[in-house]
Amino acid sequence: MRSSAVLIVRNEAAVLGRCLDSLAGAVDEIVVLDTGSTDETRAIAEACGAVVGGCTWQDDFAAARNAALDLATGDIALVIDADEWLESPEEVRAQLATFGIAATPDTLGLVYIHNEPPPGGDLQATTDETPRVFLRAAFRYAGRIHEQPESVSGRPPRAVLTGIRLRHSGYAQRADDPAHKAHRNIALLRAAMADAPEDAYLHYQLGKAWFSLQRYRAAAIAFDQALRRIDFDSRPPQGSHGPVSREMLTGAVCTRAYALIQSEQRDAALSLLEEHARLAHAGTERADFHHALGYVRLQLGQWDAAEAAYRASLGRPEDVRGTGSFATWYHLGLIAMARGDHATADACNAEALALEPGYLPALRKLLEDWLAQDAADIALLRPYAASGAFHEACLEKLDAALQNGAIDQAERLTKAAIALDAALLERCRTHLETYRR
């Protein structure tokens, strides 16, 4: 069976080449439907050998997706966006062939999408399982935004994992970026909600858009509206279009809890999580849920209950990287530190760094704890001394010490650099010279 990679694009010149390069050889045909680019998008697509078409943008992603599917000729469609790319292109042709052998007109193939976090800060990457592969003639898209493939037969689709892995950079935007895609999405979501006000999925996506812009109160309200439209008495919970996905359940509950925390509503966040723990639906089974519960209890100073929740998250499947592994160990270290147990705190941070060597929060806390103890052994820092992330953490502390007049800490950091790593020492000297000037 022939395969087609199907894209809709508009002014994607900055990222399209990366996507198309990853597809070369992985599929039989690449189809690019341009919805009104004014940059070099079309030229890049043509240079890569894609079949290129065009249509007028109608503020409707489903309409554009379906027009692109009509332009394709392959039996199997792999739907991908310009800001995504194949993680292992050499495996995809075989994965599509395997899908084609077993696929029926109601089979939807799920791909893993690794979403890169925004630059700066401590946010972690997230992973989604998203339907992107199907028999081209058997599905059409529905939905003005956050469109979903629906079976032409009208029967509920059967989801299967394809093993295909994508990486996605589209969420790696700063909240204050005027061109942040959330602004466009909010306008489209509001238009879609005028036609379908009871659609929980639209309210959920509106919450995600507000959260990405750090508009936490608006996000909490939107997630609340999504959850109110789900029947949790059913098993599995039902929305207006049938069963609600596990991913949406976890995302709506956990992200609303974080939005409430950011809005100084800690008790409301705890009540929300406790309510869903009692409901015990599939959304509460992930590491993310238990990690969120641990975080809320940590914010409320409930050390024992926070520790129990964090430990319950360890080893469970994650949507947000680290919620069942390195980020949880870091937070267990915070609890130990709050109890004055430096040895356990250092051991927890070491566990975090064994799983994620460049995890800045753990490196910062390890360094902070070392600085707080006059007789602390420098051997505690030696395993991380050559890493760029450790250098960044050290320079942050050095800058803070210099700005706050903590000369003793600045001297300790410089002496540590002498003992640990020549490159780090050179960077510390540069900072000191800049400060003296």
SSE topology:
Elements: E1 3-9, H1 16-23, E2 29-34, H2 41-47, E3 51-54, H3 61-71, E4 76-79, E5 84-86, H4 89-102, E6 107-115, E7 126-135, E8 139-142, E9 148-151, E10 158-168, H5 181-195, H6 200-212, H7 216-228, E11 238-239, E12 242-243, H8 246-262, H9 266-279, H10 287-299, H11 303-313, H12 326-338, H13 342-355, H14 360-372, H15 388-403, H16 407-420, H17 422-436
Parallel strand pairs: 1-2, 1-4, 2-3, 6-10
Antiparallel strand pairs: 4-7, 5-10, 6-7, 8-9, 11-12
Helix pairs in contact: 5-6, 6-7, 6-8, 7-8, 8-9, 8-10, 9-10, 10-11, 11-12, 12-13, 13-14, 14-15, 15-16, 15-17, 16-17
What does this structure look like?
- The chain is 51% helix and 15% strand.
- The protein is an alpha/beta fold.
- It has four domains: 3-168, Spore Coat Polysaccharide Biosynthesis Protein SpsA, Chain A; 173-285, Tetratricopeptide repeat domain (Serine Threonine Protein Phosphatase 5, Tetratricopeptide repeat, Alpha Horseshoe), CATH 1.25.40; 287-364, Serine Threonine Protein Phosphatase 5, Tetratricopeptide repeat (Alpha Horseshoe); 385-437, no CATH class.
- Strands 3-2-1-4-7-6-10-5 form an eight-stranded mixed sheet, sandwiched between helices. It has a two-stranded antiparallel sheet with strand order 8-9.
- Helix 2 (41-47) links the parallel strand 2 and strand 3 (51-54).
- Helix 10 runs antiparallel to helix 11, helix 12 (326-338) packs antiparallel against helix 13 (342-355) and helix 16 packs antiparallel against helix 17 (422-436).
- The radius of gyration is 25 Å and the shape is globular.
- The N and C termini lie far apart (68 Å).
